[in-house]
Structures are given as structure tokens and as C-alpha cells.
């Protein structure tokens, strides 16, 4: 996981620049799928810069701040300054092993685009499940495989694959499906983001491999146009401790 830690340290200052076009939509669908009420208490595991967490806090009118849990101090630095956010520097396994008393304070949890980075996902989910109270809910939001570089296999191929991990841990899957959001992407910004490894998986590629992928994207998707309407897809699963 050393490359993951190094990756987030390298991109922390530009992370929001890479992804800010997704934040409003991700906050909206997180509120919807978790059916958040002002009385709920939410922890955002792998919440990074806290931008989405702060938006969720505002949209759901939560009565207490969202806890953003992330192992990167560089990512948490901006999170600590956001409205409606508390921070905890910890990996998912750290949270389970060292902070079970903190887990017990929350009844809703969200993981957005991060469980594919957990090194021991099956064991970690099982341990996490045991610490939850009956009725506690976990929302998983994941992107399908990265366009062009699908052979990296760093994400999930289907909702079934994610659901299997949750069921093996003991969760009851209450709801599952997909969401999508269309956005006008700037060719210049998108290619800049790819060259600077906006996706964790891209940190495993050489500059030459990145450029080959960008060339393919330009030829098949952007076709030299300065802007292109693209659609982001999200796998959504709500799991409950029974």
C-alpha cells in the first residue's frame, strides 16, 4: 500500500481540482441512498479532503458534524477547515482495531470510491460488521473500471462482486443499483488530471503508458474537441447490520 500513500501525498493539493465537478452529485445521491435525517450521525470512511462530507452535512441538515476518516494527513488538512466536519487520521483497519468506541457513536457510514484500496477487504468488512449496532447502515459507492486502462483491474467489475464481500461479512443488502451523472469535461483539464495520476491506479503506470491511453481517449472520445459531454457511473449498495 506504499504506492497508495505516496499517491495521495503527491496529489492532495490538486485533488479537489480533479474531482470537484462530482461533489454535488455524490453528496446528493449519498443523502438519498442513506435516507439521511437530521438525527443521523455519519462517518465518511476514506473521506479525503472532506468536501463531499461537508456538502452532505449541509444537504441533510445533520445535527452533528460528519466524521471524515482518512489515513492521509495531506488529504485531511483541508478537511479540518471545512464546516460540519471532524477528522480522524486512520486507515479502515486502524478505525476497526483502535477506535471501536468511535464507531459506536455513529449509525450511518459511507465509503465513496475507496474500498477497492482496502488491502484486506473481506477480513476488514467482517471485523467492521461485528462492531456495528443492529440497524446501522453502510453505503458503498464505487466507480466501474477506469476507462482505457481496464486491464489494471483495480476496481470492481459488477455490483455482484461488491455485494458478495458485504454478504460474506454478515450484512443484509437492502438496496443496490447504479447512478449516473453527465458533465461537460474540458479536454485540457481531463488530460492534465490523467497525467498527474488523478486515479490511484494510474500511479502504477509509466509516463509512456499514460500518454498511450490519453492518445486513445483523444482519438476515440474527445476527437480533438475542447469539451466533451461524458457520463460518470457509480455502483451503489446500501448494507445493514441485522
Automatic annotation (TrEMBL):
Transmembrane segments: none annotated. Gene3D superfamilies: Vaccinia Virus protein VP39. Residues 44-135 form the Methyltransferase type domain. Pfam families: Methyltransf_12. CDD domains: AdoMet_MTases. It comes from the Eukaryota. This is Methyltransferase type 12 domain-containing protein.
Amino acid at each position: 500500500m506504499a504506492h497508495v500513500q505516496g499517491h495521495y501525498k503527491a496529489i492532495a493539493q490538486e485533488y479537489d481540482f480533479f474531482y470537484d465537478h462530482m461533489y454535488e452529485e455524490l453528496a446528493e445521491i449519498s443523502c438519498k441512498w442513506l435516507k439521511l435525517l437530521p438525527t443521523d450521525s455519519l462517518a465518511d470512511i476514506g473521506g479525503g479532503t472532506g468536501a463531499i462530507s461537508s456538502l452532505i452535512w449541509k444537504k441533510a441538515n445533520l445535527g452533528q458534524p460528519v466524521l471524515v476518516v482518512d489515513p492521509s494527513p495531506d488529504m485531511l488538512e483541508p478537511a479540518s477547515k471545512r464546516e460540519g466536519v471532524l477528522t480522524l487520521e486512520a486507515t479502515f483497519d486502524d478505525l476497526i482495531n483502535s477506535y471501536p468506541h468511535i464507531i459506536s457513536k455513529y449509525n450511518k457510514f459511507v465509503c465513496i470510491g475507496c474500498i477497492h484500496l482496502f488491502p484486506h477487504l473481506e477480513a476488514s468488512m467482517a471485523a467492521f460488521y461485528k462492531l456495528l449496532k443492529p440497524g446501522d447502515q453502510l453505503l458503498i459507492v464505487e466507480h466501474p473500471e477506469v476507462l482505457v486502462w481496464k486491464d489494471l483491474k483495480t476496481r470492481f467489475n459488477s455490483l455482484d462482486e461488491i455485494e458478495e464481500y458485504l454478504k460474506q461479512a454478515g450484512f443484509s443488502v437492502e438496496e443496490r443499483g447504479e447512478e449516473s451523472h453527465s458533465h461537460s469535461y474540458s479536454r485540457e483539464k481531463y488530460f492534465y488530471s490523467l497525467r498527474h495520476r488523478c486515479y490511484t491506479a494510474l500511479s502504477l503506470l509509466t509516463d509512456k503508458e499514460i500518454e498511450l491511453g490519453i492518445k486513445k481517449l483523444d482519438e476515440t472520445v474527445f476527437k480533438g474537441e475542447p469539451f466533451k459531454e461524458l457520463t460518470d457511473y457509480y455502483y451503489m449498495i446500501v448494507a445493514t447490520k441485522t
